[in-house]
Amino acid sequence: MGELFHHSRRPADCPGKDCDPCFMLVAGALVPDKLWHDDIRRPPSHDWYWARTNREAVAWLLANECTEASLDHDLGLHEEDPDAPAAELGRGSSLEGSGVDLVKVMIHLRITPPKVTIHSWNPDGANYMAGLLTSLTGADVVVRPYELRAA
Questions:
Q1: Of 1, 16, 71, 140, which has the maximum CB count within 10 A?
Q2: pLDDT tens, 100-139?
Q3: Chain centre to alpha carbon of residue 73
Q4: Model's pTM, two decimal places?
Q5: Domain extent listing, the chain
Q6: 116 - beta bridge partners?
């Protein structure tokens, strides 16, 4: 199976020709209206679009109607295998910036969804992101650190 909505929206471009998201797109199903922004941890379900970098998140937000986003702060593991043992515990650094940089772009471009959860394990980064969103947008913002899933 391919990654959850982590490719172009054109099924012909998907390397996993039979992946569920492409099947859903071919079948006429709607593209998700929720954004999951995390470099390594998979979304909680198939109804989230998974953006592993800030660039992917901004491109998707500009092209789609988004009702909810769940954002990470520490990025940089987007080229790592999310299914590797203990991948969820990894922490990287990205030349593209952190979740704070994404939040600043969202605010500047006025593409902040009405509901935002910050799921980062970095409390200082998460609180800074939430503070920016709360003070500069009308978004309903919650800080709720990511919970590891049972194996």
A1: 71
A2: 999 999 999 999 999 999 999 899 999 999 999 999 998 9
A3: 11
A4: 0.70
A5: 1-31, 32-143
A6: 69, 141
DSSP the chain: ---TT-S-S-GGG-SSTT-HHHHHHHTTPPPPSEEEE-SSSPPSSTTEEEE-SHHHHHHHHHHS--SEEEE-S----TTS-TTSTTGGG-----TT--HHHHHHHHHHHT---SEEEE--S-HHHHHHHHHHHHHHS--EEEE----PPP-
Task: Identify the band that residue 62 occupies on the pLDDT scale cut at 50, 70 and 90.
Answer: very high
Q: Which two tokens stand for residue 50?
A: 């998974």
| 77: number of Cβ within 10 Å | 21
Comparing 44-48, 78-82, 107-111, 121-125, the range with the smallest average pLDDT is 78-82
